[in-house]
Amino acid sequence: HARIPPERREVKSADYMNLQFVVKRFYDTSVKIIPEAKNIVPEYPKWFEPFVMQWFNENDDISMEYLHNALEKDQQTGFQQIAEHCLFSSSVIDVFTQLNQYRDIIKTLDLQDPIVIEKYMKRFSVTILQVLLDYANAIRRTFEHADGQDRICSILMNNIQQLILNLVQLYESMGGAQLEDETKTMLNDLQKQLSDVLDELSATFVKSIEPTIRQYIEEVYKQLQQIKGGNTSEQQKGAQPMLITKPLLDYLDQKITFFANQCGKTVLERLLKESWKAVISDLEKVIVLSPFSDSKHLLTTPSAIIEDVYRLLFGKLDRDNDRNLTHKQYQILDRSLEDLKEFFHASGQGLKRNDLEESLELQSLKYALSLCTQTTDSLIKTFVKTERDQDRPELEEYFGEVSIQVDILTDSSSGEHKVTVKVVGANALKWRTSGMFRPYVELAICGPHLSDKKRKQTTKTKSDTWIPKYNETFHFLLGYEEELDCYELNIAVKDYSFMREDRLIGLNVIKLSQVCEQGSWSSWVPLGSHINFDDTRLTILRILSHRTNDELAREFVALKSARRHKEEV
User: Counting beta carbons within 10 angstroms of the beta carbon of residue 350, is it exposed (0 to 12), middle (13 to 18) or buried (19 or more)?
Assistant: First the structure.
């Protein structure tokens, strides 16, 4: 049978299935009743095993065709609910009607051979996997074109959730925990994949309404800006947080009320979770960290933020110089978070308080708020101390190297530190220019309590040489207030020009803590294109970039956001 092509077989797999039922009835009525046969596993199920497997193969194609017809019918009717109390459409029922029929046929075989049963359940699981994943992918594609159609989006998400529930019921009816390990793993993984699809759809929907959420958060910011300092009554203090968030909460209430009526509890919970994440993240981006007056410039990837800050500092983006909030305004924003938590908790009908409090988005926002109230010195100290080796310049391609010697002398009586830096020379500088090349080395000390001290010094320029020799020595004085691990030396090589801005060739950072361990330190320092940042240090940069009237903050952000210029050839 197996060697004959399917189209040339005179006896179809369905006929063999019917024959197996005939053999089963004969066995049950004529063989099984014999005492000697009661504890013996019958042989006939093994005879029919290849024909049953062929039946599974044929039914895979039938199942997929049935699935596509069910989805097409659903689309033609606009994904209507099958009943008032059922929040999903007919295609889910149609798909599982077919799968349940196959399960019933297998169970009706009433096989006495556990090995054959395991093989059939494993093969049936493959069919389930193919059908349900194909259905989920079809729902994904439909969802992409349902933007703005809230009712259809609700039905599609409900369909996936009902798919998961029906899969669990099918799993239990197949034997559940008694199934063979590989089959259990396959079906459990399928459930996880479907759950991930539901998470994806929920996130996609919330992302579609996020521009509107962001508009309302811009309104929150405008309301905050109206609140000035001065005496405020206790009644006013209590009302202010609610007033600034009222338009946002009204919009969210309208959306969530609709979904509470249109979505199952599990789907609603996912939408609430994604909405919470979007609201809190946008509060951080739009109000706390954004230095831009136009929210379209809000960028999320680290490389984009670096480029963004760089462009901002050199006047290539518009900025609202009054974007920074006062301490009182930050306090009001912090109190308004309690109103938002109450809204999403919904007196126990929404998200759990603990889940809200421990969400990464809220932790990030609270940390950003705590940083916003710190002094510039404190922020620079945190920035320097949290720098790790992987945050140093990207050196997959380096642009030369600089020979540096550093010595630190600490006054035993005052505790002040004297940092002596000798720039010996540079080597293999990678820079092409159409004019004269005049490289020089710029040294900048970074850390707290430096506002009254000299922070930046430069060597003399050398003309038309890519291996310049300097042999120049510089001194930096540091106070006694902090340990040396709060300070670092920034090294940059630049091309001088009288007529235009000097061009950055490459840079690097030396932490003074590594110098302190040895007392004296020297090395060839490779030059990278820019500094890398983790999330904490990116947050600090954004906060400092608000402080346009603070010379230390402006200088530090310019230093850290600098990146290699394009060559002029």
Answer: buried
On whether the CB atoms of residues 467 and 437 are closer than 8 A, the answer is: no
- Domain-wise residue ranges, the chain: 6-179, 220-236+246-373, 392-532+556-561
Looking up tokens 């974007």 gives: 323
What DSSP element (H or E) covers 316? none
Torsion of CA 198, 204, 205, 207, to 10 degrees: 140
Asked if residue 383 lies in contact with residue 433, where contact means CB atoms within 8 angstroms, the answer is: no
CATH number belonging to the domain at 6-179, selected among 1.10.3520.10, 1.10.3720.10, 1.10.357.50, 3.80.30.20: 1.10.357.50
Could you give phi then psi for residue 300, rounded to 5 degrees?
Answer: -115, -25
Tally of CA atoms within 13 A in the half-sphere of 289 that contains its CB: 28
Give me 431's structure tokens: 């820079």
- Considering the four listed CATH numbers 1.10.760.10, 1.20.58.1100, 1.10.357.10, 3.40.190.10, the one that applies to the domain covering 220-236+246-373 is 1.20.58.1100
In angstroms, the CA 159 to CA 180 distance is 29
Q: pLDDT tens string for the chain (569 positions)?
A: 556 666 666 666 676 777 767 777 766 666 667 777 677 777 767 777 777 888 888 888 888 988 999 999 999 998 998 887 889 999 999 999 989 988 988 887 777 778 888 888 899 999 999 999 999 999 999 999 887 799 999 999 999 999 999 999 999 999 888 899 999 999 999 999 999 999 999 999 999 999 999 999 999 988 888 886 555 555 555 577 778 889 999 999 999 999 999 999 999 999 999 999 999 999 998 888 764 333 333 333 344 444 555 454 444 444 444 456 777 888 888 889 999 999 999 988 899 999 999 999 999 999 988 888 899 999 999 999 887 754 556 556 789 999 999 999 988 888 889 999 999 999 999 999 888 999 999 999 999 999 999 999 999 999 999 999 999 999 999 988 888 999 999 999 999 988 888 999 999 999 998 888 777 899 999 999 988 888 888 889 888 888 888 999 999 999 999 999 988 75
> Token pair of 383, please?
């920035």
Architecture of domain 392-532+556-561: Sandwich (2.60)
